[in-house]
Design brief:
The termini are far apart. The longest helix has 14 residues. The chain is 5% helix and 60% strand. It has a single domain, classed as Porin (Beta Barrel). By secondary structure, it is mostly beta strands.
C-alpha cells in the first residue's frame, strides 16, 4: 500500500506540470469548432456550445496500468442570461485510502462574434488516510479570436496570480484552421513559466456526419492521444487512448447527454 501511495504522489508531482491529471483528454487553449466531444472538461471556451442543458460523465478504469487509480468525472453545462454560459465540473482520482479531487466552476461568453472569453476557478484537494488533507485554489483565463472564417487564434493562462503554489503558471498560444468542412488542424506553444516550453500538434476530422476522430501529439513530456467518438441523436459516446512517455498508458470513456 505504501508503494502505491508513493507512486500516486509521484504521479501528482509529475502532473503538477500538466493541468490535466484526471483524464486522457487533450488539454488545449483552442476550442473545438464542433460540439462533439467532452473537451470542455479541459477548456471552458467549449462552453460556447451550451445551447441547452448537458450532462457529461467520464471514467478512466485505471491510470497508467494501476487499477487502484480510478478516475471519475461529471459535468453539467447550461446557458445563463445575456449569452453567458456556465459549467460545473467534479473530478476524482484515487481509491478508498487516498484521493485527489477537483471541483471547477467556469463561465464563458462570446463578444462581438469574433471574441470568445472564459474564466475558471478550481479547488483541488489531496486526501490520504493518516496524513490528512490539503486543498489549493487556482484561477485560469482563456481568450479566443476568430481572425477569419476558418482561422482562430487562442491564448490561455493557467494559475493566474500564482494562487496555487503547487502548480506552475502556464501560458499557451494556439492557432487552429478548418482546412475543409469537418477537417481541422492546429498547433500550440505552451510555456511553463521559469521551466520549459512544450509544443502541441493536433488534427480533428469527421469522415461521416456522426463519427469523429481526434489525434493529438505533445512534445514535452511526450504524449500521444487518440480520440474516437460516435454521435447518436442527443447522445455522444467517446473513447480516448493515451500514451505518456514515462507514465505509459491510460484511457478514458465519455458519455455526453443533451436535454
Amino acid at each position: 500500500m505504501k508503494i502505491i501511495i508513493v507512486f500516486f504522489l509521484a504521479i501528482i508531482t509529475l502532473h503538477s506540470q500538466e493541468p490535466n491529471v484526471f483524464f486522457s483528454i487533450p488539454d488545449r487553449a483552442t476550442s473545438s469548432s464542433r460540439d462533439f466531444f467532452p473537451l470542455w472538461f479541459t477548456n471552458p471556451l467549449n462552453l460556447k456550445h451550451s445551447k441547452q442543458l448537458k450532462a457529461s460523465f467520464l471514467v478512466s478504469p485505471s491510470k497508467y496500468l494501476l487499477p487502484e487509480l480510478n478516475s471519475l468525472g461529471s459535468n453539467f453545462s447550461f446557458p445563463l442570461a445575456d449569452g453567458l454560459n456556465c459549467g460545473l465540473f467534479l473530478e476524482y482520482l484515487g481509491s478508498k485510502k487516498f484521493s485527489y479531487s477537483n471541483f471547477k466552476v467556469a463561465f464563458q461568453k462570446n463578444i462581438f462574434q469574433q471574441f470568445n472569453i472564459a474564466t475558471r476557478i478550481s479547488t483541488k484537494m489531496l486526501s490520504i488516510d493518516n496524513f490528512g488533507k490539503k486543498a489549493k485554489f487556482s484561477w485560469d483565463a482563456f481568450l479566443e479570436y476568430v481572425a477569419f472564417q476558418n482561422l482562430t487564434l487562442s491564448f490561455s493562462y493557467k494559475n493566474l496570480l500564482s494562487i496555487n503554489d503547487f502548480e506552475n503558471q502556464i501560458a499557451t498560444f494556439g492557432v487552429q484552421s478548418e482546412i475543409l468542412n469537418g477537417y481541422s488542424v492546429g498547433a500550440e506553444v505552451r510555456y511553463f513559466l521559469k521551466m520549459y516550453t512544450s509544443y502541441n500538434f493536433f488534427i480533428y476530422f469527421e469522415p461521416f456526419e456522426n463519427i469523429y476522430f481526434d489525434f493529438d501529439v505533445k512534445t514535452n513530456p511526450q504524449v500521444v492521444t487518440f480520440g474516437f467518438g460516435y454521435k447518436l441523436s442527443d447522445i455522444v459516446v467517446s473513447l480516448f487512448l493515451q500514451y505518456h512517455s514515462y507514465l505509459l498508458f491510460s484511457n478514458t470513456i465519455g458519455v455526453v447527454l443533451k436535454f
